[in-house]
Amino acid sequence: MSSKNEEYKVRLRKCKKTDSIKSETWKSSNGFIYCPHGPAMKQWDTNGRLTDEIWHNCFGFRHRKDGPATIHRDYEDGTVSEMYFLNGRLDRSGQDLPSATVKTEDGTVIDEWFYSQGKLHRDNQKPAMIRRHHKTGVAYHESVWEMGHCISVIERDKKSGAVTYTGPPTENHQNEFISDGYSI
Question: pTM above 0.85?
Fold first, then answer.
């Protein structure tokens, strides 16, 4: 644990073209990425807009108890991604709340992922991955996951919401999940 008298090193990186700050990283005296009063890492785009805020605990793990540990703003498509970490793992165990979300500029949630102990998981056969069309709001993909393994998938037409597939994950789903970094 850090003490009140602990010293921290702050590294600022600047953009060579604009001389504006590109990133800020805090480290404790023991070398862990950590800031006692806010995000330990921040990044800005070339226009000086804050894009990323990342919180770490005193042991250097992504961690935040009272909010998302990672916030990413994409100014190109207007989305904001939030990820909730506990001790380095995506996790909101004990709460039926998503561990990761993507929202549009108006706050509409278009993607939700539910994790437990770092693995896609949601209790009671509820979908752990939900993807919505950004214009229609239709949940075009829902998949049920148990501790990192996909059990079933529901696909819908993005405009009408009509069910186009329901059942176990197909080879196409598996390839899509693997390319996105998920296990089957």
Answer: yes
